[in-house]
Amino acid sequence: MSGKPRLTYFNGRGRMEPIRWLLAAAGVEFEEIFLETKEQYEKIIKDGVLMFQQVPLVEMDGMKMVQTRAILSYIAGKYNLYGKDFKERALIDMYVEGITDLMQMILIFPFSPPEAKEKNLDSIKERATNRYFPVFEKVLKQHGQDFLVGNKFSWADVQLIETILVVEEKIPAVLSGFPQLQAFKIRMSNMPTIKKFLQPGSPRKPPPDERYIETVLKIFKK
């Protein structure tokens, strides 16, 4: 194994995508192992690699890490994306948790039945435009800086730009009433490491398709 972090997950976004985003934003190259069969998944459980029998799994610095939040906070701390003190860290945590609540709705959307899709999309739009995006619009306006916390790029900025782009895939005009977030999106998308991650051929995964959904359901089927 090389010195690069090794990520084990499905060949799709899911809970691994924010980890890919954070590593890429930190300028860290990584390797990926894609789960394609139930047997693969059962083998790593049998081998005792998955503490709670769940992926994502990230192997780095001699550790086999599970639980998305723990992995993200480790990466953020290691690469100086977690604020300069405990107060900044608390702000970053609050912003990240809020963004994660919205992302959870997006995460389960592809698995919702066809008859519920329109209603669920309306719910995502309502939450984004009335609960979550107004918070970050206000933070950026009052803060008067390029970034959400302090005047330094952090994990919270990475989570927010990922979420903005994912919501825009489903609701293209979602930022129409948020000029601060529009400017934030442009700034973040032009940061060298993020710009590189947004190029074709990067490890960034496309929106979930039928093959991804079938693979996930097949592996988790009891």
From TrEMBL:
GO terms classed as biological process: glutathione metabolic process
Name of the top EC class for this enzyme: transferase
GO-annotated molecular function: glutathione transferase activity
Stretches of the chain forming a coiled coil according to its record: none
Keywords, ordered alphabetically: Transferase
Domain GST C-terminal: 85-209
Superkingdom of origin: Eukaryota
EC assignment: 2.5.1.18
Domain named GST N-terminal: residues: 3-83
Similarity comment text for this entry: Belongs to the GST superfamily. Alpha family.
Protein name: glutathione transferase
UniProt organism field: Corythaixoides concolor (Grey go-away-bird)
Gene name, Swiss-Prot/TrEMBL: Gsta3_1
